[in-house]
Amino acid sequence: MSNSVLFDAPGPKTVVRHRLYALGTAVVLLGLAWWIYDGFNDAGQFDYEKKWEVFTTPDFIRALLVDGLLKTLQMAFGAILGAIVFGVVFGVAKLSDHAWIRWPATIVVEFFRAVPVLLLMVFTWFSLGIKQDNSSFWAVVIALTLYNGAVLAEVLRAGINAVPKGQGEAAYAIGMRKTQVMSSILLPQGVKIMLPALVSQCIVALKDTALGTLVLAPGLTKVGTQIYLEFNNRVPTMFVVAALYITVNLLLTLLANWLQKRYVGEKKPLELTAVGNLNGGAGGAGGTI
Amino acid sequence: MDAITENWDLYFRSFGYTVTLFVIAAVLSMLFGTLLCALRVGPVAIMRAAATTYVTLVRNTPLVVVFAFFSFAAPMFGLTFSFLDVHIGQFDFTEAFGAAVVSMTLYTSAFVCEALRSGINAVPLGQAEAARAVGLTFGGTMTQVVLPQAIRASVPPLASVQIAMLKNTSVAAAFGILEAVGQMRRFTNNFSSQRTEIFIFFALGYVILVLLLSFAASRLERKWRIA
Q1: pTM
Q2: Chain A residues within an 8 Å CB radius of B174
Q3: Best CATH choice for the domain B2-224 from the list 3.20.80.10, 3.20.20.140, 3.40.850.10, 1.10.3720.10
Q4: Residue B208 scores a pLDDT above 60
Q5: B158, B163, B218 member nearest A276 (Cβ)
């Protein structure tokens, strides 16, 4: 349903009314922006020399991008790679004909989808030993692998179920075995359908790396903390970190939309069942928590 | 084992915080999300643009950053929650709780808005056309005809949004609220040899809450299904 269906083309009176609404909204928004700007300004947060200069200093830009963004991307990327493996194994296991494979796989998947990532993170962190080098890095990667892997298993199952029935039947009819049907007929087509959902899941993983703060993980949030502790510029740092996250996520969203158009077409994005997919059922380019 | 069995009161109190935070933020985010959605599909261009920008920005920001904003940055322009000072039984709802509720609400509303919009897309075209044909305004069309059907159609996505929110309340642990994950972290710190049992107990708590929610959602979906 497109927007214009919901209201008639405005007449002269309505046009005037809408202009008043627009004016009111503009005043409220500007007031809000001014209130925030003024508060920050009074608190000296826009003082370039004291608060912002660090973000134009090459050394700190490098720290922010290499120790921060790169580490964060590494964690997210590692987690996604692991999650793909986990997702393929458990997704296929959930589709198995044998109940003794299907049920354990289902339980594992549902468990990791229902448990908060942060809980997994804290547990893995303590299990790896909080004093070990890199344990917080791996805690983030492992926790995100398990959670996103469980979601991807569900995405993969939905993707394979979305392949038209005739494909599998035709493959059986020409004498293919079960493994062949899965690996050379169903999976390739299923993967194509699930690509946009996979990219959305990358956004989720990337955003969740920020949870690493609670387990003292490296990455953007850590570098940000170090910077604001040294320069006492918490608010500017917050803006810079948020801006970096938002930029990368928007790029990923663009990629997901492009993949959706290129490979899935106008067909509806995947329908996924409830648990923990903030996308709300639509596994597509939407964007997830 | 005794880490939990001797501290059931702490265990249940921490889940009490989780559930309270969830319920308040769920109600508020549904309301605000619906409003955002109405703005996003409405006839006033500037409202549409504002709502769209809001949703895009918030959806791509990590929740931790939103929390940090309301915990540390908001006080600078005078937005504090220090007026909040409620004590019910053993529960204390103070400043940090207020900031948590606001962060969770504002963050989740963006997703509620998207879920509702997908619901609006599922309402047949003829419904809105008929509503306009009988002379309803935009407000009338939305409140009387489209939204009631859209909300029914978007029960499953809204349920996923709220389930994800339930799990996201755990972020409050990093901002001074002793909800389930915060308590779990404290237990694990104090009894690190029992970390597996502690993890399993807390994980089961979440699994039960999530199961209850998805059960309620599927009942609601069946009851509300448009014939």
Answers
A1: 0.87
A2: 211, 213-214
A3: 1.10.3720.10
A4: yes
A5: B163
